[in-house]
Amino acid sequence: MDHIESAADPVATISKRVKQLRTRKGWTGADLGQQMTARGIRWDRSIVANLENGRRATVSVNELLALARVFDVAPVHLLVPVHEQQFRVAKDEVYPTSRVRAWVRGESPLPGTDERMFRSEVPLDELQAPVQGRLTVEGRSVRDHMRAEYRAATGKEISDDALLNWMTGHETPKEMVDGEQEHREAPER
Question: Can you point out the beta strands (E) in 109-148?
Answer without folding.
Answer: none
